[in-house]
Design goal:
With about 425 residues, the chain is of the alpha+beta class. It contains 15 helices and 16 strands. The strands form three sheets. Strands 1-5-6-11-10-9-7-8 form an eight-stranded mixed sheet, sandwiched between helices. Strands 13-12-14-15-16 form a five-stranded mixed sheet, sandwiched between helices. The chain has a three-stranded antiparallel sheet with strand order 2-4-3. Helix 1 runs antiparallel to helix 5 and helix 5 runs parallel beside helix 9. The two termini are about 55 Å apart. About 35% of the residues are buried. The structure holds histidyl-adenosine monophosphate (HAM). Its main location: cytoplasm. One of its GO terms (cellular component) is cytoplasm. Belongs to the class-II aminoacyl-tRNA synthetase family.
Length: about 425
């Protein structure tokens, strides 16, 4: 029996991997523009980081973590998300003491969640995310949101919908929480068992329940926006006015609650509006988490960020039929005929590569015609043909594959000739 790839994971093969590289480059460029610096943290962390950070009432912690014991009997988890790990590193490396504040970071790497795989949902997926720590200025909320939108737009996506909400500060949340409990409690037995436990632990999560979403109490549930205190309300208004100043279009959606426990104030998601995108339309999610640094053992520090998966971004690229500018063209394919020419082509290809050009040759002892076909397949811009005759006269025949023009030039001038053109 042959061994297959684990469920919910995928191989990214040549031909597709170029798209990934392109997206990663665009993301890095945008982070440079916005002045976010890369951080790399481990793939696994102490399980407790996520139980405390992400929250023990969340689906991620309750059902989806890959947690295992190592040989030293430690509980470790493959990271299900990036924020808790970045915050751990922020605290551990005392970045709160750095001169340059706020600390603006980005990351990109695999995350792991034991979810039911379906289109757009994997057990290993790659998140690109940013975190800005140390500022409570609503302008940084707007900056983080516009960074995410800029990335999608730079890639060429148009059918996007940005939804924003405020979950308020602690005081607002407590008031809203009480209103939610009062609203659901009298009829909670009509809800699923998950919602019944959520009622006391985290009633906000009831609003996000997939099973009970059509229950009549859902539509009439108290809106967080009616429970925001003055400070939270004016904070949220500022965020919205900054988004408008930057011409970032958005819709306020008071039912947006997010699936992780650490959020307060701003929460947002970006969805794809593209036809035929599939059932899961959320491309990106994020928000503010002013209590998380303290929860993980650091000094009280505000933070905000988002994460998006490259898998869903590429699904949107396909759904909108965006052509990404990826090409893997070969500058020069060296065709050699005869044993001596073949031997010498080793040097020619090597010289081209040393000069920074992409070069390829035949390794299967193919005939002239088949070598030209191979050159076509790799989309060679030039083909240099070396036969025994050329070799003895120190020349090589250079063919421009776009114009069809051919020219005999000195072998020693080949690199120069291609660079000039
Ligand atoms: P999240 O909403 O759990 O938030 O995930 C963010 C994004 O990761 C989703 O919008 C989606 O694009 C992608 N994603 C999540 N699960 C999967 C999956 N199973 N397969 C494919 N893609 C997936 C967070 O992770 C937060 N850490 C975001 C954040 C950063 N908040 C503040 N800073």
């Amino acid at each position: 029996m042959s061994i297959k790839i684990p469920r919910g994971t995928q191989d990214i093969l040549p031909g597709t991997v170029e798209k990934w590289q392109y997206i990663e480059e665009v993301a890095k460029d945008i982070c440079r523009n916005f002045q976010y610096k890369e951080i790399r943290t481990p793939i696994f962390e102490h399980a407790e980081l996520f139980t405390r950070g992400v929250g023990d009432t969340t689906d991620i912690v309750q059902k989806e973590m890959y947690t295992f014991k190592d040989r030293g009997d430690r509980d470790l988890s493959l990271r299900p998300e990036g924020t808790a790990a970045v915050v751990r590193s922020f605290v551990e490396n005392k970045m709160f003491g750095h001169a340059n504040q706020p600390v603006k970071l980005f990351y990109s790497g695999p995350m792991f969640r034991y979810e039911r795989p379906q289109a757009g949902r994997y057990r290993q997926f790659v998140q690109f995310g940013v975190e800005a720590l140390g500022s409570e200025d609503p302008a940084i909320d707007a900056e983080v949101i516009s960074l995410a939108m800029s990335l999608y737009q730079a890639v060429g996506l148009k059918k996007l919908k940005l939804i924003v909400n405020s979950l308020g500060d602690n005081e607002s949340r407590v008031a809203h929480r009480e209103a939610l409990i009062a609203h659901f409690k009298p009829r909670i037995e009509e809800f699923c068992t998950d919602c019944q436990t959520r009622l006391e632990k985290n009633p906000l999560r009831i609003l996000d329940c997939k099973k009970d979403r059509n229950h009549e109490l859902m539509a009439t549930a108290p809106s967080i926006l009616d429970y925001l205190n003055e400070e939270s309300r004016s904070y949220f208004e500022k965020v919205q006015s900054y988004l408008s100043l930057m011409d970032v279009e958005f819709v306020v959606d008071p039912t947006l609650v997010r699936g992780l426990d650490y959020y307060n104030h701003t929460a947002f998601e970006i969805m794809s509006d593209a036809e035929g995108f599939g059932a899961i339309t959320t491309l990106c999610g994020g928000g503010r988490y002013n209590g998380l640094v303290e929860e993980i053992g650091g000094p009280s520090t505000p933070g905000i960020g988002f994460a998006l998966s490259i898998e869903r971004l590429l699904a949107a690229v396909d759904a909108e039929e965006v052509e990404l500018p990826v090409e893997s063209k070969v500058d020069c394919y060296v065709v050699a005929l005869g044993d001596q020419a073949k031997d010498y082509s080793v040097k020619i290809v090597s010289d081209l590569r040393k000069a920074g050009l992409s070069a390829e040759r035949d390794y299967l002892d193919r005939k002239l015609k088949a070598q030209f076909k191979a050159a076509d397949r790799v989309q060679a811009r030039y083909v240099a043909v070396l036969g025994e005759e050329e070799l003895s006269s120190g020349t090589i025949n250079l063919k421009d594959m776009e114009s069809g023009e051919q020219e005999s030039i000195k072998i020693s001038k080949l690199v120069e000739a291609i660079q000039e053109r």
